[in-house]
Amino acid sequence: MSPESGTMLLEHIAPRLRAAIPKVVYQVGAENDEELVQDAIVTAAQLLDAVERNAKTVTPGNIAFYTILHLKSGRRSQCRSRADTMAPGTQLDRKSCVLSMEEEVGYDPELDEAVTLGDVLASNREDPAMAAARNIDWALFIETHDYRYGVIIEECARGGTVKDAAHRCGLGYGHTYQIRRKLESDLREFLGEQALEDALQTPRWKAGILADREHAACQADRRRQ
Prior knowledge:
By secondary structure, the chain is mostly helical. It is built from 11 helices and 2 strands. The mean pLDDT is about 80.
């Protein structure tokens, strides 16, 4: 795009888009006016470039008019599909609907608060990715250390005692206890000093869900007042 077209875009087309978009373009999903204006400027630049390459003459009003038509039809500078479920055009055609996780989908009479989409979809089960990563760490630790560490760890996971681990290892209680103390030291060195603290922390994704629920509860309290 030539410098002349760039000047036209910034000085004549962009102000028209900023004035018109909040009034005539429907926002889809999480879009806002400023985001739509920025997208419109990119679309206008693409139109100007195509006009230049075809040696056509247009006015700023022409480019602004067709840019706004693009936006109203659901076309964006980086997405013109009407098959992608996330695309604005598909949502404008009412073929899909993208909802916020905070969208209210019901009401819980016992808690006297709204039920959000995030509440419905959220699971109290552990994140599989976190569990898989932890299993990899444990497997690597056991493979690179005394095999009896694996026996002690397995007994702890099952709720067993040092005596149970000693019986499986064929050792005395005192010897097994010493191995367990060595295991604790090696494990702290292998995983890092913050490993235990990190393991006890609430995952960020779950903390976000809990915060949203508390927010919804506060809103319910305000409505009751």
